[in-house]
Write a structure and sequence with these properties.
Shape: globular
CATH architecture of the largest domain: Alpha-Beta Complex
Distance between the termini: 16 Å
Bound molecules: NADP nicotinamide-adenine-dinucleotide phosphate
Helix content: 25-40%
Strand content: 25-35%
CATH superfamily of the largest domain: Medium-chain alcohol dehydrogenases, catalytic domain
Largest sheet: 9 strands, mixed
Radius of gyration: 21 Å
Structural class: alpha/beta
CATH topology of the largest domain: Quinone Oxidoreductase, Chain A, domain 1
CATH class of the largest domain: Alpha Beta
Number of helices: 10
C-alpha cells in the first residue's frame, strides 16, 4: 500500500509538492486512518507561515527536516486498527496532515473523543490532538464543518472575550481581513448582539469591499489604502486578522491613545507580517482562544460555553449558504493549486474549498 503526503518547503512555503512512498507496517496500539476530505482556507497557509514560530510543523513530521506537512481540518475513516480504542470503519473529525493517511495512537477521552497519544504530539496544544467520532458521511455537511468549525469557534470566542471585557470601553471595533471567514464570523456575532456593543468597522482590501458590504454585518467598511480618511479617531479596539505590519502600524499611529485594545489573531497577509515594535496606544496582544474557553468554564460551569459555541458556528455556517459557494475538488493533488492560490492571495472570499479524496 502506498501513502501520499503533500510536502511544503519550510523555508519557502510557496514550494509545495506531492510525495508518495510505501506504507510502514502499523505499530502495535496504533490505528491507520484514511483521510476522506478536508477544507483549505487562509488559516492553513497561516499554519505554514507560522510553522516554525508556533510549531505547526511538529504535528506531522516528514523524513526531511527541510519540509513539513501543512495541517488541515477534516474527516477520516479507520481502515486498520491494532488498538482496542478505535474500531475499523469509525469516522473521525479533527486535525489531519495534507496527506492520504495518518497513523495515530488512540487514547479515549470520554465516549466521543480519542486523542492521538503519539510521543511527538504529547507536548503540543491538546485542542489539536483530539479526534471526535463522526456519523455517516454527507459531502455538504462535511465540507461546512471542515471549513467553518475551527474558524467560527475563534470568531465567537473573540466576540465573547470583547463583551466580557465590556468592549474595553471602546466606541468602535475595527476588524482587518473582514472578508475572511474568521473576520466576518466576528462581524456576524457582533451584529447579532446589537444594540449592545460598539460600532463595527470591517477593514478590507478594495477588491473585497463590495463582498463585505453585501454581508450587511458591519456599520462601516474601510479599505487598507485609505482608512486614515475613513476611520474616526475615537476610542477603539483593533482585531487583527491580517497581521500586516504596515496596516497595523498605520492604524496605531492614526488612533494613538484611542487604541484601547489591539488583538493579534491572524496573519492572512502572511508575507507582510513583521513582529511589532513600539507603537502608540495599547500594545498588540496575542488572542489565545482556549483561555477564553477555560474562563467561561469557570464562570458558567461545565458544558455551557460548548453549548453556545455549537449553536454559534451552526448559525453562521447555515447562513453562509446565502453568501458562500462550496467548491468541492477531487483528489489529494487538487489541494496543491488551491493552496497555492490562497498563499498568493488569489481566492475569492465567497468560495469555500473542500478537497475530497
Ligand atoms: N488565532 C486563532 O486562533 C485563529 C483561528 C482562526 C483563524 N485565525 C486566522 O485568521 C486569518 C483568516 O483565516 P480564514 O481561514 O478565516 O481566512 P479566509 O476565509 O481564507 O480569508 C481569506 C481572506 O484573507 C485575506 N487574504 C488571504 N490571503 C491573502 C494574501 N495572500 N494576501 C493578502 N490577503 C489575503 C483576504 O482578505 P482581505 O482582503 O479582507 O484582507 C481574503 O479574502 C488567518 O490568518 C487565520 O490563521 C486565527
Amino acid at each position: 500500500m502506498s501513502i501520499t503526503e503533500i510536502h511544503v518547503e519550510r523555508g519557502n512555503i510557496r514550494n509545495i509538492k506531492a510525495h508518495t512512498g510505501d506504507a510502514q507496517p502499523l505499530a502495535d496500539g496504533a490505528a491507520r486512518l484514511q483521510i476522506e476530505g478536508f477544507a483549505l482556507t487562509a488559516n492553513n497557509v497561516t499554519y505554514a507561515a507560522t510553522g516554525e514560530v508556533i510549531g505547526y510543523w511538529k504535528f506531522f513530521p516528514t523524513d526531511d527536516p527541510a519540509t513539513g506537512i501543512v495541517p488541515v481540518w477534516g474527516f477520516a475513516r479507520v481502515i486498520e486498527s491494532r488498538s482496542a480504542h478505535l474500531e475499523v470503519g469509525q469516522r473521525l473529525y479533527g486535525f489531519f496532515p495534507m496527506a492520504s493517511h495518518l497513523d495515530i495512537t488512540p487514547e479515549p477521552r470520554g465516549a466521543n473523543v480519542v486523542i492521538d497519544a503519539a510521543p511527538h504530539r504529547r507536548d503540543l496544544p491538546p485542542v489539536y490532538n483530539a479526534y471526535t467520532r463522526a456519523g455517516a458521511s454527507d459531502a455538504a455537511d462535511d465540507a461546512l464543518k471542515s471549513i467553518f468549525y475551527p474558524l467560527l469557534l475563534t470568531s465567537y470566542l473573540l466576540f465573547d472575550f470583547l463583551k466580557d471585557n465590556d468592549w474595553f470601553k471602546a466606541e468602535q471595533i475595527i476588524i482587518s481581513s473582514a472578508s475572511s471567514k474568521t473576520g466576518l464570523g466576528l462581524c456576524k456575532y457582533l451584529a447579532e448582539a446589537r444594540p449592545d456593543g460598539p460600532r463595527v468597522i470591517g477593514l478590507t482590501s478594495k477588491g473585497n469591499r463590495a463582498f463585505v458590504q453585501g454581508l450587511d454585518a458591519c456599520d462601516q467598511i474601510a479599505t487598507y489604502g485609505a482608512f486614515e480618511q475613513e476611520i474616526a479617531q475615537i476610542p477603539s479596539v483593533y482585531v487583527d486578522m491580517a497581521g500586516n505590519a504596515d496596516i497595523r502600524g498605520r492604524l496605531h499611529h492614526h488612533l494613538g491613545e484611542n487604541m484601547l485594545h489591539s488583538a493579534a489573531v491572524g496573519t492572512s497577509h502572511w508575507d507582510k507580517f513583521e513582529p511589532t515594535g513600539d507603537l502608540p496606544g495599547a500594545r498588540p496582544r496575542f488572542f489565545f482562544a482556549p483561555s477564553q474557553v477555560e474562563k467561561r468554564r469557570a464562570d458558567w460551569g461545565p458544558g455551557q460555553i460548548e453549548k453556545r459555541l455549537e449553536g454559534a458556528w451552526r448559525r453562521v455556517a447555515q447562513d453562509s449558504l446565502d453568501w458562500m459557494k462550496i467548491e468541492i475538488s477531487q483528489g489529494l493533488s487538487s489541494a496543491i493549486p488551491i493552496y497555492t492560490e490562497i498563499a498568493n492571495g488569489k481566492t475569492t472570499p465567497d468560495t469555500g474549498h473542500y478537497i475530497e479524496l
